[in-house]
Design a protein that fits this description.
The protein has 8 helices and 5 strands. By secondary structure, the chain is an alpha/beta fold. The protein has a single domain, classed as Rossmann fold. Helix 2 packs antiparallel against helix 3, helix 3 runs antiparallel to helix 4 and helix 3 packs across helix 5. The protein is globular, with a radius of gyration of 16 Å.
């Protein structure tokens, strides 16, 4: 973190910094985070920043192959194998793309990062948030975002916005309720990093809340 101020007030202008800034977007499948990450990337680029958008799992050649395995509805994957595959894709992305981009001063905007593993694998799969966090600290060599935007939308509304389900999306509504609980838990654990943003309303209304949360 670059400042000790509270992110929930939306008053911490992290994008005013001239050094590299790492922002992640999190939330339930269907909450609109891919759209909002793209809109913030556009706004940051318009403000003159070099923007490096990434998505998880994936964003590198090895990571995209791991993504294909992870999301294949035909595969049955053990929960810890799943958690480690997400962490493996993340390790590659951090080493190959995120860390070099931050070192040259770019703004990295990630569509999901470690908090997804805490919510989906740690909480919803029941592996334990501390255990999954420990694995991810190793995989990322301790790199956490400067600011995480957690987009919050009712589970029913988020489900209604999804297309053809992948292996994880195909899980039942109880699973997705546990994912939402996992994200809420992460927001309580990391209040200085995670800004909780209401994802209801129009695309532009949400984009405005997002920009306030990151200070752009
Ligand atoms: P996406 O649909 O946002 O591209 O994400 C792919 C799926 O992977 C989504 O259902 C959430 C899930 N996921 C995890 O279960 N753990 C993780 O660490 C990440 C990054 C994603």
């Amino acid at each position: 973190m670059k400042t000790g101020d509270s992110p929930r007030t939306g008053t911490v202008p992290i994008l005013a910094s001239i050094s590299g800034v790492f922002i992640s977007f999190e939330g339930l499948d269907g909450c609109g985070k891919t759209t909002q990450a793209a809109l913030l990337a556009e706004a940051a680029a318009a403000a003159g920043r070099e923007v490096v958008p990434v998505r998880e799992p994936g964003g590198t050649s090895p990571g995209e192959r791991v993504r294909a395995i992870l999301l294949d509805p035909a595969l049955e994957i053990e929960p810890w194998a799943e958690a480690l595959l997400y962490a493996a894709a993340r390790a590659q992305l951090v080493a190959e793309v995120i860390r070099p981009a931050l070192e040259r001063g770019a703004t990295v905007i990630a569509d999901r990062y470690v908090d997804s593993s805490l919510a989906y694998q740690g909480c919803a799969r029941g592996l334990g948030v501390d255990e999954v966090l420990a694995v991810n600290r190793v995989a990322t060599r301790g790199l956490l975002p400067d600011r995480t935007v957690l987009l919050v939308l009712g589970a029913g509304e988020a489900a209604g916005r999804r297309g053809e389900p992948d292996r994880i999306e195909a899980e039942g509504s109880e699973f997705h309720t546990r994912v939402a609980d996992g994200f809420a838990d992460a927001a309580r654990r990391f209040p200085e990093r995670i800004a909780v943003v209401d994802a209801s309303g129009t695309r532009d209304q949400v984009a405005e809340r997002v920009r306030a949360a990151v200070g752009l």
